[in-house]
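Running low. Got one?
___
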Amino acid sequence: MHRTFLILCLLAGLHQAIGATTTAVSFASLTLNSEIQVDGQGVFLAQVASSTDGSPLPVLRLLPAPRLGTPLTLTRANLQQLVAQPEHGMIVSNWVGAESVRILRRPRMLGEGEVKDLLTKSLQESCVRDRGELELRLDRGWTPVNVPDEPLTVRLLNLPASGVSPLLLVRFELLSGSETVGSWQVVLQVRIWREIWVTHAPLRRGQVISETDLVRERRDVLTLREPLGDLAATEAELEITEGLQAGTPLYQRHLRLRPVVHRGQTAEAILQDGALNMVLKVEVMEDGAPGQIIRIRNPLSRRELRGKVQNEKTILVCL
């Protein structure tokens, strides 16, 4: 115990500037408490003692706070040594009250709900981000444990490289400031909730789609392995690439731009070569939507070209 006290005394003095000067403060006597609880900020004089005449004590940090579950006992002699250090500059003529003070870290019980909230916040920020709203459930529950009665943060020790999965093994540490409270390992059931487009009624292949054919539903997207359909990606008309049943999530592969030119039809090709423009009748070789590059053919020379679809009658070719 004496060795621990000496170590704590050394730590307490590290924050003081070398050569600092203070004006000595004298007290006729201080009343020592028998037991106190402190937080991570440290052990302060006003916590361990009070003046017998009721005058306020100076704000003096005597020692770092002890770790949770490791009480520290200071005798009157110990305290006399601490307050008499040059950086404190206090003179106490007499100590009354208890012979020693037992100092404990203030504890509280950490339950499953708080652990889940801490892990959810950490994984949301580090892994899920804007993909949706993360929901966690501890697969085997949580046994409440004693922790310091202070705000806690989580440090993930095995951040999954491939992202979260429906069943996830996580190792983590709990921190109180820079102090490590402990480490644990849990198995999590994971969901990521997000509103997505879902078919409202059966849709057939080639059907032009509108928002009236779809509804927004909150679904767990963690089990959906394909890119989801985005109706806001283009202002052009979209059509369905395959038949879909009602209640089916809309994937990107279910959508395509509705073609305005079709294979076998005749269209006008505008050939641009610098300042020279020519208009030529061509045969369309494949379906195409506005903005898409398709193959076309000169029916006279049988030469194939590639051009960008402008509208249902015009294709632009840059030579």
About this structure: The mean pLDDT is 88. The longest strand covers residues 179-199. The radius of gyration is 37 Å.
